[in-house]
Every structure is written in structure tokens, then in C-alpha cells.
Amino acid sequence: MTTSKTQRRKGYIMLSMGRSGTNWLKSISNATGRMGITGEWMGPSKLGKPLRSYNAQSYYEEILQHATTPNGRFSIKIFPRHLRFAQANFGFDFIKKCAQEHDVKFFLVTREDRFGQAISALKAQQSRKWTDDNGKLPDHLRRKIRYNYRKLCDYYFDIDAGYNFWRSYLGINSIDHEAFVYEDLLPNPAPFFESAAKHLGVAPPESYESQMVIQRNAETEEWRRRFQKDIAKHGVHPDTYNLRQPSASISNALRVLAHKPIKSSAGRI
């Protein structure tokens, strides 16, 4: 992979997991027009062309192009799956390359309310609505959401695994970073933006008002109570343990025919 010939820029990268308040932070910073254009630019849905049209360098350069404001500052939001996507499809560590070629500040943004985060993630996944649309979406286009104890358990554990991935990644690479918690920023997001603006060499946002509406509502709290009751009564859903399952292989098919014990495949963990 070649080294980018573009001028060294200043930027920041938010490392997080979904439903951690990063869309709220993004709405405030992007409104300034001078702090980069925060987005999940590494995801395949953000690419302007089919995946096969890119090599590692063109993929890397397009991400920076999307993330950069006219003053040359950039900002990117990255989840663990984005980093894995780049590694699996293009064979390089986007963060490492970006830090080598540009002046990057890293922020780890987490959320303490894991129950609320899991519920928010499930609702967003089912409705395909990641931000509040202020009632603009027609009723016939809205997808119904349903409480699902098994999926909430999955999200709860996956979110924690994602945060642990970032802490391990930052640690093993000895990357300096600042950590912020969503609940601490809600009443006053100034510390995050002042730090980011200082690094970028620009003025912080004039206002911390956001067009985004917090999606938490009475239904969210009802699901929280129901989820906590299910956990108290049933414990963690069995599927969350990633129990070893029979491997779908020719050898196992032959073992079944021969009335022999079958071999299991390993779980994800």
C-alpha cells in the first residue's frame, strides 16, 4: 500500500459503539463547518462505488475526502466492525495508517447505561431508524418494533465486547487518547468539543444545541423493567453463551450415518 501524497492534516477519530451518543456529538460538530465531517465513513454503505472498484489506497483516500471540511480538518467515527471491514477487505489497519500520515487525536466515547444502550440498539435495528425523524416518516413506512429478550442479551454483551476491543486496541498500540462518557457529556458537552477544537486549531462550536431528539421514551423504560425482570427470572439467555453447535460438515454427516458422536464447532468467544 502506498503512502498518501496529500498534505498532513489535523483530525480526530471517535472510537465507540453504536448508541453511545456519537450521533448527537456529530450533529453539533458538523454544524460548525470547520471541525471535519463526522460520519461512519469506513462502512461499505458509505462508499460511492461498488467495493470491487477500490484498492486499499483509494478506499483510504475516499474516507478522508468524505470526512474533511474545506479548511482541511477531518473527523471520523469508527466502530470495531469498521476496522475489521478494512482489514478483511483491504488488508490494512486504517487507524495506524491515518495516525502515521496525519496529526490525529483519539477519543474513546462510551455509555454507562448498558441496558438503555442495548434497548436503543435493538429498536434502531428493528425500525432501521437510527435518529429521531420528528414524525416525518409516513406511518406505512414505519417498521414495527418488538421486545426481544434474546437479542437484548446479545446486544448487552456485544456492546461491552466492543468497548473492551477498543481499550485493548488502544493499550496494545500505546495510543494516547481521551475518554468521555455519554452520561457525563449530556449536561455539558463542552469538554469534548473544547479538546477537539484545540487539537484542530479552530474555535469550538458557538452553540451546543442539537437538532437531534433523544429517542428514550416510556416504552424504553417499560422494556428496561421487562428486561431486568427476565434476567432476574431466567438469567442470561442460553444463546448468549455461544454454546458449541454441531459443525455442518461431510465428516459429521458420515458420523450420523455411522451412529457416532458428532464434532462441534467452536463458539464465537
CATH homologous superfamily classification:
P-loop containing nucleotide triphosphate hydrolases
Shape: globular
Spatial strand arrangement across the major sheet: 2-1-3-4
Beta strand count: 6
Mean pLDDT across the residues is: 88
Low-pLDDT residue intervals, each spanning 5 or more residues: 264-269
Describe the structure.
Helix content is 44%, strand content 10%. It contains 10 helices and 6 strands. The longest helix is centred in the middle third of the chain and has 24 residues, at 149-172. It has helices at 22-30, 56-67, 80-90, 94-101, 114-127, 149-172, 182-185, 190-200, 218-234, 250-257, and strands at residues 10-15, 74-78, 103-110, 178-181, 245-246, 264-265. Residues 264-269 have low confidence and may be disordered. The protein is globular and about 65 Å long. With 269 residues, it is α/β, with parallel strands linked by helices. A 4-stranded parallel sheet has the order 2-1-3-4, with helices on both faces. Helix 5 (114-127) packs across helix 6 (149-172). The chain has a single domain, classed as Rossmann fold (3-Layer(aba) Sandwich), CATH 3.40.50.
Observed structural traits:
two-stranded antiparallel sheet; 269 residues; disordered C terminus; Rossmann fold; 10 helices; four-stranded parallel beta sheet; 6 strands; alpha/beta; globular
Would you spell out the secondary-structure blueprint of this structure?
Layout: E1 10-15, H1 22-30, H2 56-67, E2 74-78, H3 80-90, H4 94-101, E3 103-110, H5 114-127, H6 149-172, E4 178-181, H7 182-185, H8 190-200, H9 218-234, E5 245-246, H10 250-257, E6 264-265
Parallel strand pairs: 1-2, 1-3, 3-4
Antiparallel strand pairs: 5-6
Helix pairs in contact: 5-6, 5-9
